[in-house]
Write a structure and sequence with these properties.
single chain; four-stranded antiparallel β-sheet; alpha+beta; two-stranded antiparallel ribbon; 6 strands; 7 helices; about 270 residues
């Protein structure tokens, strides 16, 4: 039997449990603080990336006074050489000293959002963009006259490509409230996806991932927000709800260069 003197320096079971509980709580608080700091740093880095791409977009506008074509299939036959084959190529050749193949530059440097994660099951031949361009607005792909920035679809000859001619700088009615570029999210009516483009359109279903899995990844990227560049050059963190779910005039108008909602064109 131990004497009181022998037990004086020992911890009781209750005291040990209290100490362990305190350690667990402190560890949890430290982890939460670390996670919050990491998320904030990623969001800031992403916003800086979008801002850098926006500066190149402004440089392109300053040189040509038109927005880059979303696609320019007529490039190899001599059409719209400054636009190259797509908006990505136009941005690369305008603002960066060395142009690389898409597979090399789309997941690195200014094109890489540190909070984005390509789905593990997404096939390699199915592209995955982390930043995208408002090429269509609320218009369905292939519309006679797109409402976005990527060109006047269907208004030019086949030789000039389906996105020609380009949208002039003066055609954007309210640059301070017109979506130009940002996190590659697309969606409508509450259904949101990532990796394909920046577009107010109902995402197409995929067979390697459930809508719930996609939505969970999208919402976790920036805590339910997206870093968006407006046509006047400033960047905002907009909620996914305001971008892809709200159907009021203000929410829809910011997608379209005439600053009108065009709710009748939504791809429900």
């Amino acid at each position: 039997m131990r004497t009181p003197k022998q037990n004086a320096g020992a911890f009781t079971l209750t005291e040990l449990l209290v100490v362990i509980a305190i350690i667990v709580v402190l560890a949890g608080l430290s982890f939460a603080a670390y996670s919050s700091a990491k998320e904030k740093a990623q969001r800031i880095q992403c916003a800086n990336n979008v801002r850098q791409l926006g500066l190149v977009l402004q440089q392109f506008l300053g040189e040509y006074h038109v927005y880059p074509l979303f696609l320019n299939p007529g490039f190899f036959s001599g059409a719209y050489q400054e636009h190259h084959t797509s908006w990505i190529s136009a941005i690369e050749r305008t603002g960066f000293s060395e142009t690389k193949q898409a597979k090399e530059f789309l997941d690195k440097g200014v094109w890489h959002c540190p909070a984005a994660h390509r789905p593990a099951l997404r096939p390699e031949n199915l592209g995955y963009s982390e930043y995208a361009y408002n090429g269509y607005g609320v218009s369905p792909m292939g519309a006679t006259n797109s409402l976005g920035l990527g060109g006047h679809q269907g208004t030019a000859s086949v030789n000039h490509g389906t996105n020609a001619p380009p949208v002039s700088e003066s055609e954007v009615a309210v640059p301070v409230d017109m979506v130009a570029m940002g996190d590659a999210f697309n969606g409508n009516n509450g259904v949101i996806a990532d990796g394909a483009g920046l577009w107010r359109v109902q995402p197409k279903p995929v067979d390697f991932e459930t809508p719930a899995e996609i939505a969970r990844r999208v919402k976790s990227r920036h805590s339910g927000k997206a870093n968006i560049l407006l046509c006047d050059g400033h960047v905002e963190a907009m909620s996914l709800k305001s971008l892809f779910q709200d159907n009021d005039t203000q929410a829809l108008s910011r997608w379209n260069r005439d600053h009108q909602p065009h709710a009748d064109q939504l791809d429900f």
